[in-house]
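RESIDUES AND SHAPES:
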Amino acid sequence: MAHPASAGGTSGGAADHRPAPPWPGAVRRVDGGPVVKVGLYFDLRVPPHVETPPARVYAHTLEMCEEAERLGAESLWFSEHHLFDDGYLPQPLTMAAAAAARTSHVRLGTALVVGPLHHPAELAEQAAVVDLISDGRLDLGLGAGYREPEFALYGQDRDARFPALAAMVPELNRLWTEELTPAPVQPTVPIWLGHGSEAGARRAGALGANLLFVNPDLLPAYEQGRAAAGLAPGDGKMGGPLFALASDDPEAEWTEMAPFIEYQQNSYRRHMVQGLDQPAPRPFDAEGARQGSMTRPGSFWFDTSDAIAERVGTWLGDAPIDTLFLWASVGGMPERMVERNVRMICEKVAPALRAL
């Protein structure tokens, strides 16, 4: 695969303090071309049947952030949801600030903040503070959201979420560059938009944002949006989550792993329709998801690191993917499994993906 440069770049103050390459994880091919960067993804769930105190889950997650950086991870990503029955992380920028204080060079991202729930000035200030604490390491991923209870909680109009998100991008950039103090370390914090449709990809491109959704089929629409806005089509970036976990012996470990994957995916499906006059989605088929296509929702690969990398290479081809990040914890996994996932992602999956 051909891969463009870093997700957030190193322009501005961050470049003055970041060590010169190679820093941990800053791998380059022999021919000098860039390689895909690999990160970890956290949602900090504590399912009702899990007895671990939430405070311990948060503490252990920060420990894993430190360990992931030590092992060469290039990014850490945090998600946002509200009113989940398992305590899904509600404030990813707060968590990113905590991770920033415990790390020194790994980039920190949100995947994603539900933009229309928040006032642009409040969001711009929060992001600026994280960027200052991290010395210019923040990537701000935004999405339109979809859950009716979340919009009701924040007193926002769910039907207006897409235009609200589109208006937020230029307003954030204006606030960072013209009005708010203190300003972020980066001249403008890199913005990623989580759109999974052609119309959304085109909108992200037109707004000059990176595309926080991995699907090579969306690249033409994304580049068309950039071109229509007078932006260089090839300068945009695509990245996002890869729903996959690796194992040295996937068949032996599948029985233990499958219930956690099923819990996570069924939880998303159950909460997705809350507050809407829609039937409950059918239960998640974990076995079928192991072989599913990543171009459609509902796939979750579980295989060896080399097999996952081979499938990723077949799927993405020469698509210019900047960043892929994988779940470190799924569905309330115990600490030993989380620690195993962090090691597998950093020590085996990442090298295999970077070798594509």
